[in-house]
Amino acid sequence: MKNYLLVIFAFLIIHPAFAQVTKTITGQILDPQGMPLPGAEVKVIDKNIFDITDFDGNFTLEGVEVGDTFRVTFLGFEPQEFTISDQNEYILTLQQSAAELSEVVVVGYGTQRKQDLTGSISQITPDEITRQPATTATQSIQGRAAGVQITPSGAPGSSPDVFIRGLGTAFGGQNPLYVVDGILTDNIDNINPNDIVSMDILKDASSLAIYGNRGANGVIIVNTRKGKSGVMEIKIDTYYGIKSEMEKVDMADSRSFAIYSNEALGVTDRFSENQQYNTDWFEEITRTGTVNSTNLSLSAGGDNVRTFFSSGYFEEEGLLKGNDFNRLTLRSNTDFELSEKIGLSYQASASLTDETPKRFTVFNTAYKQAPIVPVRYADGPFAGAYGVSADETGSFNNVGNPVRDLDYDNQKAKNLRLQGTFTFDYEIVEWLSFTSRFGIESENYRYRNFTNNLELYLTGDPTRTRAGYSSEAPKTTLTITKRNSYKWVLDNFFTMDHSINELHNFKLTLGTTVEERGGEFLTGIRRNVPIDSDYWSLNNGDADPMEAYHLRDNTVRLRSYFARLNYDFDQKYLFTGTYRRDGSSQFQEGSKYGDFYSIGVGWVLSEEDFLKDSEFISFLKIRGSFGELGNQNVPLNVLTFTTGLNYPFGPDQSVNEGGTIDKLINPNLSWETTEEFDVGIEFGFLDDKLSGEIDYYNRLNRDAILPVEVPDAFGYSGVTLTPAGQVRNEGLEIALNWKDQVNEDFSYQIGGNITFNTNELEKVTNPFFAENTGGSIGNGQITKKVVEGEPLGSFWLLDVTGIDDEGNFIYDDVNDDGTINDDDKKFFGSYAPKNFYGLNFSADYKSWDFNIDAYGNYGNVVYNGKKAQRFGGENIEQDVFDNRWTPQNNSNTEPAPSNDVPLSSSYFLESGDFFRINNITIGYSIPLEENGYFKDARIYLTAQNPLISQDFSGFTPELPGDPLGLAGVELDAYPAVKSFIIGLNISL
Fold it and tell me: Matching PROSITE patterns, A to Z (predicted)?
C-alpha cells in the first residue's frame, strides 16, 4: 500500500511538467492595404474560444495552446486559418475575395455566391435597414435597390406599396411575395427590422422561376439573425423621436373665404368679411407625433448549440390626434448540430399589435370645412356637422366637423401573428444533402367599433333635440369583428454540390413543396349597448335584432415540384436552368397546373487570361436570362343567384317566385403568366473601389386579368373577369458604388441607383373588353380608365385649355360637336413614375460616422382630389383665392369663384416629380475601456424626411393604393411626415 501511494504521489508531482501550458495571445487583423478590419470573427477551431476584432482590428484569445489553429473570417475577404506558435502577438493580413460581388446571397431553396449568379438580385445589408428607423424594414430601404419602387404612407403601422420592375397587373395584386426564414407570407410588418440579417430581392426570371406561380411580382427573401459561438453578446438599441407634417397646405382664412363665397353666389353681403372665428381645421385635428423603440437581443452558443433571442417594443403616436400604434415582437432562433451530418434548427416569432385607427377622411373634411365655422359653439357643444357660420343661420355646405368626427370615432384593432420554421438538414455524403423544412403562420385579428348614434345626431345640428330622435333608431351600435387565418408550407429538397477536376462545378436542387391556407371571418352587431366602455360587449344591449355574419375562406392548397441546375466551368462560364410545376386547388379542372421555367447564362470575363492580371478591372461579368413566371393572386369569379324575379304563371296567373344565375363564370380562369428577358453586366474596377450593375429587362404579362362585358344575347349581364390583355414593362436599371479607405482614420462610400421604366397595356385580346373606369372622387366624377395603348392607372380627363371672358374653364372639344362630355376626354399619363432613383453617402472618421440618403422620381402625374371634390360652400386654398378670376383680374390660371361641382379635368392634375432627403444621421462611438462592462456604445441623431422639393401643391406626391382606385389621387390621404430622432446602441 505504501508503494502504491508513493507512485500516485510521484505522478501528481511529475504530471504537471508534462501537461500542455495554456496562454493568452493578442493580435491585429489588417486588409492588404494595411488598414484594420473591425468586426472580423476570430475563432479557435474545435474550442469554445472566440473574439470579434474591435475598431482598430485588435483581438484577444485566452486559454489557447501552442499548436491550436484559429480561423479568421470577414465579409468580402477569403477565410484564413493560422496556427499558434510560441509567439504571443500576431499581425495578420486577410486577402480579399475575387470581389465583393462573390459574397453569398440567398436564393430560393439555397444560397449562391453572387459572382456565380445568372440572375438579377439586389442585396440589402442590416446597416441599410436599421439606418433609417421605421415600423417595417420595407419603409427603410426606399431608394436602396434599383428596380424596386416603394411608396410609403405616413400613417402609423401602415404597409408601403412595393413594386418590382413596374406594374404588371391591374387586378391580380401588385406586391411581391415575402419569404421569411422559409415562410411564404404577404408582408413583413410583424418583423422587427433589428432582427434582419439579410434581405435579398429577386427581380428577374432566372432568380424567380423557382417560385413558379408566386414569382411574377418579385420575391423578397428575409433571413433573421442567428446565434454565434463564443462569448455571449447582448445588444440594446433604443431611440425616441418627434414627428410633424412634411408639407402643409395653405388654406384661405375667414376673410378670403367670405369674399370668395360671396362672389361664387353673385352677392356682396351673404358673408361678412369680419368673422368671429378663423379656424385652422388642420391644426385642430393634428398634433406633434412621437415614436419610440427599444430592442434587446442576446446571442450565445457553443460548438453544437447556438441561439439568438430578441424582444422589441415599438410605439408611435400619429400625426392625427388619437391615431396610435404599438407593437411587441419576440423572436427565438436556435441551431443544433446533433452530429457532423445532422442539424436541426427552429425560428419562432410572435408579433402583437395594438392600434387605435382613425378615419383618414377627416383630412379631407378639414381641408374643405370653412374657417368661419367654429370647432364648438360658445356654450360648449360641437359646431354642426354642416357649415354654419358664427354670424349666419342655416348650413351653407355639406362638410362635417372633423374634430367631432375624431372625437366620436371609437375604433380599436389588435392582431396576434405567430410564425415558426422548423428545419432538418442531413448531409448524406459530402456532396449531397437533404433538407426538410416546415413553416407555419397563424394570425388572430380582433376589431371593435362603437358608434354613439344619438350623439352624432344631436351634434349634427344645434337645433336638434333628443325628442326628435326616432324611437326606433338605435342610440348606440357596437360592431365586433374577428378574423382567424393560417398558412403552412412544407419543403423537402435535395441539394447536390459537386466538382469534377475543380473545373466542372455542379449544384443541383430537386424538391417538392406543399402549401395550404385558410381562415374564417365573424362579425357581430349589437344595438343600444351602454355608453360606458366597460360594457362594450355583444352580451349587452338589445337582444333583438342581433346581427351576425360568418364567412369561411376557401381552403387553398398548392402542390409544386421544382428543379434547378447551376453549372460553371472554371468559374468563368455560367449556366442556370430552373423548372417548376405548380398545382392549385382554387382553379377549375384543366387549369389547375402550370409550368414555369427559366434559363440563365453568364460569362465572367475577369477570369479570362486576357483580363486576369488587369490592374484596372477586378471583376467583370455579363449575364442574360429568359423565363416564365406566374401570378396566382387573381380575383376569382363568384357565381351569384339573383332572386326576386317574380312572374305570373299558370291558369290562375298566380305570382310565382323566380330566380336565375345572371353572371358568367370563366372556367378557364387561372394565374397570370409573365415572360421576362433580362441582360445585365456586373463590374468592379480599381480593386473594387468602383462597383456596379446595369440591367435591361423586358417583362410581358400575356394573360392579364381584365373585365369583359358579355352581350345580352348570351343570357347574362354585367362584367366578368378573364385573361384578356397583355401588359408590358420595359426598363433599364443602373447601380453604382464607390468606396475608399483614405487612411487609418477616414473612409467613405458614395452610391446611387436609377431605374427607367415604361408601362403599357399593350394589347387587348378579348373583343368584349369592358374599358374600366375608376379613380372616383366621391362627387360623381371619375379620373381613370383602362384602355389599350395606355399605362395602367392612366388619368382620363377633360383638357382645360384656358379661362374664358366670364372666368369659366375652356375645355378642349375634341370631337367638335359643341358639347363637352366623356367623348372629349384625353389620357394624361399615369401615377407610376417613368423614373425613380436613390442616392447615398456615408463616411467614417475615427469615432464619428455620417450618412445621408435621398430618393426621388419623375415622369408621373398625381391628381389633387381634395381640391376637386367640391359640392359648394367648401373652403379653398389661399393660392386659389389670390389668383382667382375677377372682372378686375382676368386670370388665365384660376377660374372665377363657383359652387358648381367641377368636372374632372387637367386643371386638378399636377406633376408628381419630387426629390427628398430621406435620412441624415450622425453618430459617435463612445470610447470605452478595453476590459470594461460595455463592448461598444454609440449615440446618434437622425433626421428623417427633413427636406423635400416637390411640384405638387398638396400634402404628398406619394399616394399608394389600388391602381384603378385612389393610387396617385390625394383624397383621404395621410400627409407625409418628417421626424427627428435620438438613439443609442449598446453592446455588452
Answer: CNMP_BINDING_3 (PS50042), TONB_DEPENDENT_REC_3 (PS52016)
